[in-house]
Amino acid sequence: MEGKTYDQLVEEFTPMIHHMMKRMTIYKDKQEFFQIGLISIWETMSTFDEEKGKYSNHLYRHMQGRFLDELKRRTREAERSAYPSEEFWEVMESPILYREEEDYIKGLCYELNEGETKWVMFTFIEQLTVKEIAKKEQVSPSAVKWWRKGAKEKLKRTLGL
């Protein structure tokens, strides 16, 4: 390790980066994990103490820790950003809502524009289909579908889903 430049270390330990990615079954975002491996080489250049062992062992443990940290971070992020399935929306569109539910739904519409609010109210309270809403509002079914799309996106954000 002594006297070697960063470029020399990268050339020498690139196979270790690939080995670590293969060992940890990293198949998505390989370039990002490769960059983490390169950063590990850079970081360990200044933290390595020759009296404590071989540089390759130090680098291996450091890189493994960085990869695990990144995998944990991604897992947490994926858990926080889970979206409801289509079944959720089908249940939400099912009939017979009670007064409290109706008030709750009306309260959710504060961020929606007029068309999106109409879709929510007609769908969840009056139980109308896209075609029925289009006929009632004298617009095309595709316009109602745009209202639906916008409403779903905004409601997902509002509800934190």
UniProtKB/TrEMBL annotation:
Annotated keywords: DNA-binding, Sigma factor, Transcription, Transcription regulation
Single GO biological process annotation from the record: DNA-templated transcription initiation
SUPFAM superfamilies in UniProt: Sigma2 domain of RNA polymerase sigma factors (SSF88946), Sigma3 and sigma4 domains of RNA polymerase sigma factors (SSF88659)
InterPro entries tied to this protein: RNA_pol_sigma-70_dom (IPR014284), RNA_pol_sigma70_r2 (IPR007627), RNA_pol_sigma_r2 (IPR013325), RNA_pol_sigma_r3/r4-like (IPR013324), WH-like_DNA-bd_sf (IPR036388)
The RNA polymerase sigma-70 region domain, residue ranges: 9-76
Segments passing through the bilayer: none
One GO MF term: DNA binding
Protein name stated in the entry: Sigma-70 family RNA polymerase sigma factor
Organism: Niallia alba
Lineage of producing organism: Bacteria, Bacillati, Bacillota, Bacilli, Bacillales
